Amino acid sequence: MKINGTAFRTIWLAKDGIGVEIIDQTRLPHEFVTITLRSMADAALAIKDMWVRGAPLIGATAAYGMALAAREDATDAGLKRAYQLLHATRPTAINLKWALDEMLAVLLPLPETARVAAAYGRAAAICDEDSAQNAALGEHGAALIKAQHQAKQRTINVLTHCNAGWLATVDWGTALAPVYKAFDAGIPLHVWVDETRPRNQGASLTARELNWHGVPHTVIADNTGGHLMQHGMVDLCIVGTDRTTRNGDVCNKIGTYLKALAAKDNNVPFYVGLPSPTIDWTVADGVKEIPIEERSAREQTHIFGKDADGKVTEVQVTPDGSPAVNYGFDVTPARLVTGLITERGVCAASYKGLRGLFPERG
User: What does UniProt list as catalytic (predicted)?
Assistant: First the structure.
């Protein structure tokens, strides 16, 4: 992604070869600020407090967190302790555990003296792999948008939920990778951007990066999507996912399930973009088995914004004394998903469909 002509990933090694730089996403869309992570504790805080977010980027940050941990204590006990602390930061996104497992698999067989260099090397490789996977799934998803354009011969309207773009990954994005690939190929399109309460990742992050890239888009209230679908104003939905079961159930930002129900009722194709590390092959039933993160109620009762003087401030939107609950995710059953867009192609949201693309998973 280019910002004012300069290409950025969302995470990269600092010039000193030790620290890890990230974009503080809590400061977007109004400020672009980078932070250097210097310790495993910094990486854990960045994940927990959502300086970084999005399943693939969480995994990449955790991988670099293990590299930073190896610098602090490269013993078996030290690495396993770091694994547990990083794993506890956010429970829903499976990429976190996947990346941590990848790091331990590489590091534990090595002598302690070789572990720091190997950790940085594997973390960098995880970032490169994520970028390549998302670029590939973007091509497969762009073909779906192109087919819609060829059939309808007009601008194609895509509805997305939350942020599953470049800011949620190392580069390109999941749900938005097809949008960027199609847009760059000259296919006329427009994106409906759900605001995505309570943290407003759609309004603050998706709109921000679409704006940077020059993609036509409109921010809408979360409850507008069904109305747009009823009136033929949505050609397809593409969302991301933090964990997808082996049977094709999709766990994504709260509100995704409602969009899928509306899409089903209005015969609007509902696709999910995901790199393969987001598939949890150990889980069959998403509703019963995926842990749903419950975050601070303050995210629901308060909101950040820029006032008339340009100052970013927080205000309370609920009455004093009114309790709130803040579930971070919901599960969309496979029966509501038209297809899964992966780096290996598009498949049915089913065990058979996923196994067809990933036969090595046994």
Answer: 242
Q: Are residues 122 and 154 in the same domain?
A: no
User: Is 115 one of the annotated binding-site residues?
Assistant: no
- In the chain, what percentage of residues exceed pLDDT 90? 94
Co-location of 63 and 164 in the same domain? no
Query: Is the same domain home to 184 and 253?
Result: yes
Which range marks the domain in which residue 30 is found? 2-129
Q: Is 53 annotated in some ligand binding site? A: yes
Say whether 171 is catalytic.
no
Strand partners, 12: 21
Query: For 303-313, how does the pLDDT look when each residue is reduced to its tens digit (9 = 90+)?
Result: 989 989 989 89
Structurally, the chain folds into a number of domains equal to: 2
Q: Which residue has the higher pLDDT, 310 or 68?
A: 68
Which residue of the set 42, 171, 242, 330 is catalytic? 242
Q: Give the burial string for 269-292 (b: 16+ CB within 10 Å, else e).
A: ebbbbbbbbbbbbebeebeeebee
What pLDDT score does 1 carry? 80
